[in-house]
Amino acid sequence: MHRELSFGTGAVLVVLTATLGSAPGRILGRSPNTQEQKPSPSKSPDRTTPIQRLMTSDQRKHAKLQGLRSCRVRLLDEQLSTEVFSEPFFDDKPHPPAEEIIAAMACGSDAVFIGTSSRSTSFPTDDGCWLFTDSEIEVERTYRVPTTGAFAVGDHVVVSLSGGSMMVDGERVFAKNHYGPELAENRRYFVALTYDAGSKAFYLKGASNDVLEARGERFYSFWPTQTREGVLSEDGIAASTLMEKLASVKCR
Description:
Structural class: alpha+beta
Largest sheet: 8 strands, antiparallel
Order of helices and strands: EEHHHEHEEEEEEEEEEEEH
Number of strands: 15
Shape: globular
Radius of gyration: 21 Å
Helix content: 10-25%
Distance between the termini: 57 Å
């Protein structure tokens, strides 16, 4: 049987999907003799902790960067999948030219470079309520490199991103943030990221952080950022223009 639970406020909608086997269903609701019933403790097997024990020290640190502020359900234990939908907000105000967007990325991020993704592996977050993915990117061109965690052309850099997919006990479990970047293998990307020295991870944090995917001779954003020339997720920016703008950026 397929079950879907959905909730949301404003522009964000979260959908949880579970595949249920022969286990008896759980009913949440009101009882005549109580104010409100709380979910009973999960009796599902612990599928999360054994995986976390196999994670490296750095991977466990990456797991603390992602995840939710509060939750009651560990996805792998319940074999639940979840999707987060964020509705973009568009207005009639003048939008900045693409070069200003690129400059904000270059100057507002710790690391800015172009590279090719080689492999990706997903893991549960520290609380088990979400998944994250560590992707290796081989650096092709650098535009901004942090003093700590420095890298050079030819190095492989680990980028930690929210969301992922894992096969656990024969079931596919995924956590997906729509409009969030998903790095496919052997694809080129422009990345502007924050560096966390404690976990040695590059990840998305600030508003200026972003990932653009190369398709042909243009780079496209996963999020529909509006510029004077168009929407980055739909119209993209020419690779030559992107590199020209990056080369001319002067950060204070």
